[in-house]
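Newbie here. two chains, one complex. Structure please?
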Amino acid sequence: MKLITAVVKPFRLDDVRNALGEVGVQGMTVTEVKGFGRQRGHTELYRGAEYVVDFLPKVKVEVAVSDELVERAIEAISGAAKTGKVGDGKIFVIDLEQVYRIRTGETGDQAI
Amino acid sequence: MKRTLSALVALAALCGPALATAQEPDSGSTAWMLTSTALVLMMTLPGLALFYGGLVRSRNVLSVLMQCFALCCVISLIWVAVGYSLAFGDGNGLIGGLSKAWMGGVEIDSLSGSIPETVFAAFQLTFAIITPALIVGGFAERTRFAAMLWFSILWLLIVYLPVAHWVWAADGWLFERGFRDFAGGAVVHVNAGVAALVAALVIGNRTGFPATPMPPHNLTMTVIGASLLWVGWFGFNAGSALAANGAAGMAMLVTHVGAAAGATAWMTLEWLKFGKPSVLGIVTGMVAGLGTITPASGFVGPMGGLAIGLVAGVVCFFATQFVKRKLKIDDSLDVFPVHGVGGFTGLLLTAVFSSPALDGLGLPEGVGIGGQLVTQLIGAVATLVWCGVGTFVILKVVNLVLPLRVTVEQENEGLDLVLHEERGYSL
């Protein structure tokens, strides 16, 4: 099992959700986050006073998937989140030791 | 000629409460002045409160709304106790007497010009409310609520009421000199602007200014407030005719043109200088245009209003850059460069654009532009000096009794939580 964490542009979220749904991902967790990468920040100007904004708003999507679904899920995310411009985001994949479904007590792939 | 006449009538009406007579009030004028009173109150609540509230950081939004609201309440009580009497009661050239304290003699059938004196007193009250509320912008985000209240009460008594008497009461020394301040360029705007600047200097900059960014937290709120100010200003300026007549109509028109011209000028300058026209810029230019047209609004024609508005947008734009960026004084919401500089400029331009040769409604009999300019300068400087010294002394005295500002830790936490135990937003 893997935990896929994707940081994407906020306006691509709906597409990412649909693409993941199509490859069989059954659930996800979404968080509004801020950060910077190569896109860096921007400046704002109020009555002539300039402020540099370092952190840009992004959306972090977390999905747990079984091993056979990993490649397709990554393709789905990168396909849906890609605009080709700097700032499209990142996908991180890490090993997932165990998953429990709280209601039934199921574990492993069953619980995803 | 008609314009001149109606301006003279308006001027006569400005003399304050005339002798009570057995006459009936003029119903049209009374209706308009009731409306104007409501419009000017709306300028403070919620207009100015929202305008300022949006400009501060989210942790201080309630503190600013609270200051505006509390000032409205407290000033109203002082007004009916002694404020109205000290400003408009019979007195000497410097201050009114106490003959109308506790609204003595202001009866249901008392007249002031062609309107009930109750309406006149309520209308003037709304000016006494908005002026201290404007000052709040100078010391926002760091001042203790109690100190703000004591300062504002003393400031009203020591600075506002005398200046209002000088300028608007029939026996005021500036009024007798022929000083022209139709709706409060000196009484409201120079007064508030200078007080805000002095308060910012005495109380000190916000912790972190100017290195730390302190951008507005909700410009949508600011635009709503600014728009309410624009509409309310029709009551402020056209209401200052104290009648429903041609002078009021002209004042409303020049006020609107002044606002539009100030906003357009600021937007254009910003566009040229910084590459983008900003929302905060256009609404700030609007306020600058309105503050600057205020003293002139009963004396100039539409083209004068246009010129004054354009000048306001340019002068106040550069004044704002100068105070904040060059002098590094944390007059947090730019009250001095917009209201103080705008009001001062407007007072001087009133002399120029009163001239019939420049579309104006006429200068006083036998007075040229130069002569009127001297009178305007005397009035503006007198207001500036009295207000500057008075504000400084009041703040120092209040500071002896209770600290003016919160601690650095409290400032970081935000005044909403520390002083009011509330948050503006639970998101």
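Moderator note: Chain A has a mean pLDDT of 94. The longest strand of chain A covers residues 56-65. Thread marked as resolved.
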